[in-house]
Amino acid sequence: MSVVRTCPGLYCGRTQLDQEEWSECGACPRGFRTNASSHCEPCAAAPTLYDWQYLGFMVLLPLVLHWFFIDMCTIGKEKKSIIAQHICAFIEVASGTLGALMVLPPAGTVALHVCTPQALSDWYTLLHNPQPDYKEVLHCTQEAVYPLYTIILLIYAFSLLMTITLRPWLISMSAPNPGKKAIYCSLYFYPILVLIHTVAAGLIYYSFPYIVIIISMMTSASHFSVKIDQSAPALLMTSVTNTRNLVILIGHWLVHAYGIISLTGLVELWYLSLVPAPALFYILTAQFTDPMKIHND
């Protein structure tokens, strides 16, 4: 490889035109990223475990929102219809995710070729266009984290397409069409998720394990707080004997474990023993937080 002058800025690079000739400094083509020598190199690395966990988190967001709005919009309806809609929502998101993986290189497989993020700035190359000699700005905006940024947009687009294709057909089979409002909700939350991802993708990438752990603890506490009897035996019995409560509790534990593994990797697995801690802490201490037991002096 011939020696070429390095380019200004963090993300400006040169593309090799032939054996001895290089392009001017600029943005690398899609699927490439500049290296320390300002050469545009193809993204050929395999995703790390953390990368896959990030993608999993971004996929879980619409799935959980689907399930939440299905529950909210079908209160008092037939259980079979609600379960069918839950399964349909899972199929929608799973098929959208699979479709996005299949269309990205290497096409036709669920494998990915990525440029692993190295810094927060990799997600916001638009903010790092250099201005040599304080004259004209050299535009080098590119997807330095290819394809971790665009794949989320593809997943959401394909999942929404599957939602408006499959769900109306499903709910039309049962009268009086319970869950129709849940489809409308998805037409709102998908654009909101896209907007959040567009603006805060890098921040989410580095903070999602903490977000998962905090949200799982908060939702676990809110789930227990709606129970009328806040005594420890009652909370424990309803969590074990009621099927819906047991499913919700196990779901919280799985999400909490997901956050812990994302934070620690597969190195210190003993941290997983802390998964039941938030639920047990609430059950054991709820009786001491009853406002009716507070006496004014």
UniProtKB/TrEMBL annotation:
One of its GO terms (molecular function) is ubiquitin protein ligase binding. GO terms for cellular component: membrane. This is (diamondback moth) hypothetical protein. The keyword Lyase does not apply. One of its GO terms (biological process) is response to unfolded protein. The keyword Manganese does not apply. Pfam families: JAMP. Keywords: Membrane, Transmembrane, Transmembrane helix. The chain crosses the membrane at residues 52-70, 82-104, 148-170, 182-204, 246-263, 269-288. It comes from the Eukaryota. PANTHER family: JNK1/MAPK8-ASSOCIATED MEMBRANE PROTEIN (PTHR12740), JNK1_MAPK8-ASSOCIATED MEMBRANE PROTEIN (PTHR12740:SF4).
